[in-house]
Inverse folding.
């Protein structure tokens, strides 16, 4: 089974850092507001934002390589297999005869690193499980072409 | 009103339509009121506004025409912007007939034509006579064999050349639900609890229940301050525990009964005169007292069937059945819904309903297999942890005597065992079944060709015990949070199962 592209670790780390920064900013603003109204009795100034920054930095740095290690995917002649999860593990099987359509999606962060996500849609309701997040953009395109090719499409509705 | 020959000419909606639409005249009053606010001449403006609206309604009625052809239904409508819509017959999934109280009295229905590839309702005929609605449904839902009798074979057309389905296979009403069963359904519904909570909450803010009167029976007047009943209760608790207990019980009984009664009434009104009818490839359900609904759907749209049994109903040997339907074609998915197959039925009669949806499914021959015995351990550990944590917190923050809370471990063990026994999975022919739930047992029946994706999931606990949960994904209502799952199989067995199901799906080929 295949790994994701190694650069996806950087994408995950940067996304994590940004999220941490935003969350810390929001909490800091909240803290400021609380302090202004009720003084330093309720909250130690800087505590919540500080905690978030601490844990955020730690997680953003340490988690992505773990996540990368446990992410596997494979396109077989008759199905797509996706295996992921560090603590909560899952293995998904999508029969190719059930693929409705395939999307590639690139966030600004991914674009900077030349990566894309491949999203496979079936008629199933929880299609969010069928996303491969860290592929080189050319590879994602190629896969999309390949998966979209079905033997023949009859219209029995 | 309704011409009988479907091939000829354009048809209008029922003449009573402008009357039903005249409720829009109320807008004239709104405009008049606005005029009054701004100091204009109210009466002339109101009259002009009413006249314009009435004209609009009338023109709208006159302009609305529809026509059924060999391969489609065409609708022309629009007052200012003329619109023309052509719906190919092959795309029609459903003709939905609905009638509110007034409409039922007048003998008319609102017909909705629904297709697979669109947003659901493609054409809305508001209103046509009931007979016309049923005729439309018959004509538009005719199966292809009936549309092209020459291709289907010599005996597919009758002597006078009319499509066979219109004559030889009327929808036969298979199963009806008597009112008494609906009363029982309402009485045993889990939702009764929600209703009680809603009543309690509503009364706190809006005060429509005789709560004060009730409490005055039990609580000495010195504690009945003019504030809300809740505060009086708390004051009483601090001074006279017995009165408090009696008052609280009375309150609970009162709201409980009220909620329960409401649940029964709501259920009866909603599913009044429920019937299930079936023919060739089509199923039809009808129900409702104040709003009468009649929905049809093609059997191929059914993605799975759920048998739902809350604990009370299970003891009474009752169940309710629902189907998830979706119309989808290559590259497109629409109209995912949950339909009620029956609001309540006896367990022995489930087979009849299932046969209507899955004719080749043998319910009696299903052999349920249990989950892995280690699952029992996992269920117990989860509950034990919850008990120990909450007991620990109570001991530390409240009172050391709460250590007695650990006694809850005993019922926790029995509950865990019971939960385990309600797990199960089975395979029968081209169907796969899953079952779970103690308080509400849910059984899923999924035709293997309808499987969209398969998952094997493991929580950290399951990983340690070598277990996993198989989730079977189908098309259907995305807002229904449950899914077909086989919980706590051994990991190897789960992998095997997923692989073998995927292979069977592949062999089923493209299925829409």
């Amino acid at each position: 089974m295949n790994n994701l592209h190694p650069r996806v670790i950087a994408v995950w780390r940067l996304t994590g850092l940004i999220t941490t920064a935003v969350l810390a900013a929001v909490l800091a603003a909240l803290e400021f507001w609380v302090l202004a109204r009720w003084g330093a009795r309720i909250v130690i100034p800087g505590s919540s934002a500080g905690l978030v920054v601490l844990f955020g930095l730690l997680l953003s740095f340490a988690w992505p390589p773990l996540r990368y290690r446990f992410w596997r995917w494979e396109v077989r002649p008759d199905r797509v297999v996706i295996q992921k999860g560090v603590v909560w593990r899952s293995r998904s099987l999508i029969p190719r005869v059930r693929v409705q359509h395939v999307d590639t999606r690139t966030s600004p962060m991914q674009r900077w690193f030349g990566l894309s996500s491949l999203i496979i849609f079936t008629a199933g309701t929880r299609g969010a499980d069928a996303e491969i997040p860290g592929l080189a953009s050319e590879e994602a395109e190629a896969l999309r072409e390949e998966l979209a090719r079905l033997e023949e499409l009859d219209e029995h509705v | 009103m309704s011409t009988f020959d479907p091939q000829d000419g354009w048809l209008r909606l029922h003449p009573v339509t402008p009357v039903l639409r005249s409720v829009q005249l109320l807008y004239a009053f709104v405009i008049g009121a606005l005029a009054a606010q701004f100091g204009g001449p109210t009466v002339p403006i109101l009259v002009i506004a009413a006249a314009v609206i009435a004209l609009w309604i009338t023109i709208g009625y006159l302009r609305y025409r529809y026509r059924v052809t060999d391969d489609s239904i065409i609708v022309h409508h629009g007052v200012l912007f003329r619109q023309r819509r052509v719906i190919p017959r092959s795309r029609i999934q459903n003709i939905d007939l609905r009638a509110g109280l007034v409409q039922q009295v007048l003998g008319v229905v609102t017909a909705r034509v629904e297709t697979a590839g669109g947003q659901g309702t493609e054409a809305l005929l508001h209103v046509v006579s009931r007979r016309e609605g049923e005729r439309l449904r018959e004509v538009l839902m005719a199966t292809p064999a009936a549309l092209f009798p020459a291709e289907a074979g010599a005996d597919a057309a009758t002597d006078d050349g009319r499509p066979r389905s219109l004559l030889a296979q009327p929808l036969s009403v298979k199963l009806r639900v008597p009112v008494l069963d609906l009363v029982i359904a309402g009485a045993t519904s889990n939702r009764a609890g929600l209703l009680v909570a809603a009543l309690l909450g509503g009364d706190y803010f809006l005060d429509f229940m005789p709560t004060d009167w009730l409490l005055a029976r039990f609580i000495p007047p010195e504690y009945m301050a003019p504030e809300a009943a809740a505060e009086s209760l708390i004051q009483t608790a601090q001074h006279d525990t017995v009165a408090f207990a009696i008052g609280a019980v009375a309150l609970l009984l009162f709201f409980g009964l009220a909620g329960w009664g409401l649940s029964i009434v709501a259920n009866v009104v909603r599913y009044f005169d429920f019937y299930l009818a079936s023919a060739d490839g089509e199923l039809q359900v009808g129900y409702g007292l104040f709003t009468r609904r009649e929905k049809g759907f093609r059997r191929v749209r059914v993605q799975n069937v759920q048998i739902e049994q809350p604990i009370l109903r299970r003891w009474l040997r009752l169940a309710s059945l629902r189907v998830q339907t979706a119309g989808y074609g290559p590259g497109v998915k629409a109209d995912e819904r949950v339909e009620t197959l029956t609001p309540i039925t006896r367990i022995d009669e489930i087979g009849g309903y299932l046969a209507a949806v899955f004719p080749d499914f043998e319910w009696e021959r299903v052999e349920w297999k249990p989950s892995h015995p280690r699952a029992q351990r996992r269920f117990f550990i989860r509950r034990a942890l919850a008990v120990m944590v909450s007991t620990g917190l109570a001991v530390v923050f409240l009172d050391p005597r709460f250590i007695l809370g650990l006694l809850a471990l005993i019922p926790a063990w029995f509950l865990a065992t019971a939960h385990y026994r309600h797990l199960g999975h089975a395979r029968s022919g081209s169907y796969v079944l899953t079952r779970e739930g103690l308080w509400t047992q849910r059984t899923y029946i999924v035709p293997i060709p309808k499987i969209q994706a398969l998952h094997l999931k493991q929580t950290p606990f399951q990983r340690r015990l070598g277990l996993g949960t198989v989730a079977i994904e189908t098309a259907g209502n995305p807002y229904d949070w449950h899914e077909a799952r086989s919980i706590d199989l051994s990991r190897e067995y789960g992998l095997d199962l997923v692989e073998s199901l995927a292979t069977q799906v592949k062999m089923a080929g493209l299925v829409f």
